[in-house]
Design goal:
Strand content: 15-25%
Number of helices: 7
Radius of gyration: 30 Å
Order of helices and strands: EEEEEEEEEEEHEHEHEHEHEHH
Strand order of the largest sheet: 12-13-11-14-15-16
Helix content: 10-25%
Shape: rod-shaped
Length: 376
């Protein structure tokens, strides 16, 4: 299925049912009074995050989506049936905005998360609603309200722990294939990857007691971003379409092809990607970045070590530098292990910060009560 990361759709929530005008007529109660029921509520439209999806292709052609209308009320105070809600499945990481006002409605990031995007209309009132001591035979009803109708823009920003960056043919797809079960297209020409690919890197079970005890912490998600060129932030090579997918990653892993053995040229390639990140979104420079010098299988060990020392000295500890070969797997296991350990620390720190903020937001009375309960 073709990867689609943007879509425009029109959603229409259901109309509420009309109220009923009715009077009770029975053999023993010829003037039983008003008994018109209320109309049902129109169905609402929701977006649901579905973990099995990774594209918005389902919205590319079927752009009009409607929820069910509420049914009208009936006599004997019978309310109309509510309209059926419409649940649209979207991949995690989908951002929803109003196409006309550019107002952000929300986003769905966690699997199973639900977001209301169009509310169904209220049902109308039957004449039983208007009976009073001064008006025992009301003939007044109200019609159902129309549901929300909105033009929405859906934008997918892939959710990944690690985003792979680099110039075309740096070996990003080969690395993704080496460390995960993903099977991206690989060839010896630029722009082989035309859209982001996701893969799950998983450590071997025997690589540590911690990993063996907690299988969920042994794996993380990598996103292979198509190669960037000069001017990518302004749309060169569709770069602006690709750079947005690294905004939600925790670590940026920059791959550099070192087979040229030219240290100044390698440093220029590193700076070039950094400039594109700065031009697209300066906050990306604050993300943690790692450097992987790829294709060491094409060099002798001494040359690779020399390049590693030179670049490490020039970067002056700004980021970890690893030597790898995505083709034969040399150094990949150590890189994956280090990334997993770092991601575990970042997740633990984020959990601690969230707990601290939650404790700080509690009132002094709540905190003292909690302490008395704990000591009691």
């Amino acid at each position: 299925m073709k990867f689609v990361d943007e879509a425009n759709i029109h959603v229409v929530a259901g109309k509420g049912g009309n109220g009923c005008l009715s009077f009770l007529r029975e053999k023993c109660r010829p003037k039983g009074g008003p008994d018109g029921g209320d109309g049902g509520v129109g169905g609402s439209v929701y977006l649901v995050s579905a973990g099995g999806l990774n594209t918005l292709a389902d919205f590319r052609y079927a752009r009009l989506r409607r929820a069910g209308n509420g049914q009208g009320g009936a006599g004997r105070d019978r309310g109309g049936k509510n309209g059926a809600d419409l649940f649209l499945k979207t991949p995690p990481g989908t951002i929803v905005t109003d196409a006309h006002t550019a107002e952000k409605i929300g986003d769905v990031t966690r699997d199973g998360e639900v977001l209301l995007v169009a509310r169904g209309g209220k049902g109308g009132w039957g004449n039983a609603h208007f009976k009073a001591s001064t008006n025992r035979t009301p003939r007044r009803t109200t019609v159902g309200k129309p549901g929300d109708a909105r033009h929405l823009k859906l934008e997918l920003k892939v959710l990944a722990d690690v985003g792979l960056l680099g110039l075309p043919n740096a070996g990003k797809s080969t690395l993704l294939k080496q460390v995960s079960h993903a099977r991206p297209k690989i060839a010896d020409y630029p722009f082989t990857t035309l859209y982001p690919q996701l893969g799950v890197a998983e450590m071997e079970v025997g690589e540590g007691a911690e990993a063996e005890a907690d299988p969920c912490r042994r794996r993380f998600v990598l996103a292979d971003i198509p190669g960037l060129i000069r001017g990518a932030a302004q749309g060169g090579g569709l770069g602006s379409q690709f750079l947005k997918h690294v905004q939600r990653t925790r670590i940026l892993l920059h791959l550099v092809d070192i087979q040229s053995q030219n240290v100044p040229a390698l440093r220029q390639a590193i700076d070039e990607i950094e400039q594109e990140l700065r031009a697209y979104d300066p906050t990306l420079l604050h993300k943690e970045r790692w450097l992987a010098l790829n294709k060491i299988d094409l060099l002798d060990e001494a040359t690779a070590a020399r390049i590693h020392r030179a670049l490490s000295a020039q970067l002056a500890g700004r980021c970890p530098v690893y030597l790898i070969s995505a083709a034969n797997g040399a150094g990949c296991a150590a890189l994956v292990r280090a990334l997993r350990q770092r991601l575990s620390k970042l997740a633990a720190a984020q959990t601690g910060n969230r707990a601290t903020r939650h404790a700080a937001s509690r009132s002094p009375g709540q905190q003292s009560t909690a302490r008395s309960v704990e000591h009691g």
